[in-house]
Write the structure tokens for this entry.
Amino acid sequence: QVQLVESGGGLVQAGGSLRLSCTFSGRPFRTVAVGWFRQTPGKDREFVAAISYSGTYKYYAEPVKGRFAISKDREKNAYLEMNSLQPEDTAVYYCAAELSGRTYSEDSFRRPGHYDYWGQGTQVTVSS
């Protein structure tokens, strides 16, 4: 069965860094596209970053451009490296998997409904 497990969240001071990990299982990872989203209480899930199944294309939300970097390896892991963290980055971060192995437009990757499976989330808290 497909599963995604996030890890790496925690408490950091403003200006600090964290690396989130997402471990995927249940299907060949080489054909899995991955998105990262975040959510705070009372708000909709917000797009953060995405990577195509091949790793060729990477997309970022404007607030994190230049600070966050998404990547995936060939086996089972996706990562979100977060630098220069600010209090407004505080949220529960989720990874999500899209399994078709097809090419999609950038706007598709930005929509939560595009993804087939989601992890449980990991809390990131940034103190000022």
Notes: The chain is about 5% helix and 45% strand. The mean pLDDT is 96.
